[in-house]
Amino acid sequence: MPQNADKVIDHEMLFREPEYQALFKNKKENFEFNHADAKVQEIRDWTKSKDYLEKNFARDSLVVNPAKACQPLGAVYVANGFAKTLSFVHGSQGCVAYYRSHFSRHFKEPTSCVSSSMTEDAAVFGGLNNMIDGLANTYNLYKPDMIAVSTTCMAEVIGDDLDAFIKNAKQKGSVPAEFDVPFAHTPAFVGSHITGYDNALLGVLKHFWDGKAGTTEPLTRVPGESINFIGGFDGFVVGNMKEVRRIFDLFGVDYTLLCDPSEVWNTATDGEFRMYAGGTTKEEVEKALNAKATIVFQEYCSEKTIKYLKEKGQEVVVLNCPVGVAGTDRFIMAISELTGKPVPAQLEKERGQLVDAMADSQAHLHGKRFALYGDPDQMLGLTEFLLELGAEPAHVLSTNGTEDWAKKVQALFDSSPYGTGCKAYPKRDLWHMRSLLNVEPVDFLIGNTYGKYLERDTNTPLVRMVFPIFDRHHYHRYPTWGYDGAMRTLIMLLDEFFETLDANTIIPGKTDYSYDIIR
């Protein structure tokens, strides 16, 4: 083999060595028994046709590569947003390994989460003993201030009662009776990660505001002047929460960020391991009941929580991932109207700088066609920003989007001449997107890391703006919300445009007539 201590070959080049090529050739010829190359190409070409697109969109009982994750992933996200809180997933160990690795690969930071390690016997008899032992181990080994419990498919199919299980575990001495263990049922076979986020956040709020599962008296709301903020499930949370804090601080208002995992996924390397960092404290959660209002950035990520907040008597301002000028304007004006404070001069200046940058670059993005996929709120924000830039968001797809979401996207299309002919696709997956890119091609694709296969298959350049992003580093450290976030988003769109233009004009004497120094 070519790999040895004296000649360490990088992964990129290692498998191009003759020894590996011979292995691949032997495997293909003697073990795979594939169809003939011509037949494979024939089928591949057919899957790019309009005939196949029609058949593809007619399917109603099969999902191929959905652009979403399952509920417990959103619940683990929420647990990481509260101070010294450990996520406890009642289910199999393999599921929890997926949640941890998913976040760790995106944020490039360790993500703590434990499991009740349910196996075959628990699947038959229930997981009470797993809960009793698991909570005891979690409490004694990792010393959290709070344990947030959620579920996987296995526990939900059995029908395990989390409320009863947690109370039984406390009676058995797994954790002290007064120890906080909020919970949420998050069945992975329905909904998506945004549903899990909503259920888990609601579980935390109900725990503290409604009497800790009937063990204490419910809190009484005493209306004050503070403002709550809920960001929703956000892959750019490290940069975005910093930007949200900065905006609130510029206004000089009293505010509480409900669920803020930005610090736990942005810890320093200084010789000290931090399992817990930052997050909303329990005292802040209790105080949040008295807020004058709550601003929610993701309507479809917080539907149950929004309803609950309104029932508690709070005014709720619901937005959809503000990206760009108009979206940020709504956020800024909401703070101003709720607090009676004028818009800070610094934010007015940043708005003007963003508009100037958009004017400087609009000629390059004007008329360019985009396809984009991701969570419903993020798609609304990005669609609005593309229209502001004079681009055409031709295909906007959301696997966890609803028909109501599609109507809101259509309203955005109708509000701009650049939305003519554009269409929203709720409850569709990335195999549907592949058909769209082949039959109705666009200039650019906006999505997550999994879009790189669509990029290769359809030759559509990919802009990575959607969770998860595994194959690029540190995007999550920069904001996408606010005027500064819109500036960052604009730069990412422009960078991909210019990289593609350079790649298409790079051959000397043939295509380099536009291989320019100045763009």
From TrEMBL:
Nitrogenase molybdenum-iron protein beta chain N-terminal domain location: 1-56
The record ties this protein, via PROSITE patterns, to: NITROGENASE_1_1 (PS00699), NITROGENASE_1_2 (PS00090)
User: Catalytic activity, per the record?
Assistant: N2 + 8 reduced [2Fe-2S]-[ferredoxin] + 16 ATP + 16 H2O = H2 + 8 oxidized [2Fe-2S]-[ferredoxin] + 2 NH4(+) + 16 ADP + 16 phosphate + 6 H(+)
Keyword set, alphabetical order: ATP-binding, Iron, Iron-sulfur, Metal-binding, Nitrogen fixation, Nucleotide-binding, Oxidoreductase
Name the Gene3D superfamilies for this protein: Nitrogenase molybdenum iron protein domain (3.40.50.1980), Nitrogenase Molybdenum-iron Protein, subunit B, domain 4 (1.20.89.10)
Q: What is its EC number?
A: 1.18.6.1
Tell me the ranges covered by the Nitrogenase/oxidoreductase component domain, including all copies. 70-493
GO CC field: molybdenum-iron nitrogenase complex
- The organism's superkingdom is given as Bacteria
A molecular function (GO) term: iron-sulfur cluster binding
**Database matches in InterPro entries:** ChlB/BchB/BchZ, Nase/OxRdtase_comp1, Nase_comp1_CS, Nase_Mo-Fe_CF_bsu, Nase_Mo-Fe_CF_bsu_N
The cofactor note from the UniProt entry for this protein is: Binds 1 [8Fe-7S] cluster per heterodimer.
Q: Which cofactor does it need?
A: [8Fe-7S] cluster
Top-level class of the enzyme under EC nomenclature: oxidoreductase
Alphabetized Pfam families for the sequence: DUF3364, Oxidored_nitro
Task: Return the similarity comment.
Answer: Belongs to the NifD/NifK/NifE/NifN family.
Q: Which PANTHER family match?
A: LIGHT-INDEPENDENT PROTOCHLOROPHYLLIDE REDUCTASE SUBUNIT B (PTHR33712)
Q: What does this protein do?
A: This molybdenum-iron protein is part of the nitrogenase complex that catalyzes the key enzymatic reactions in nitrogen fixation.
Subunit annotation: Tetramer of two alpha and two beta chains. Forms complex with the iron protein (nitrogenase component 2).
Descriptive protein name: Nitrogenase molybdenum-iron protein beta chain
Q: Which organism is it from?
A: Ideonella alba
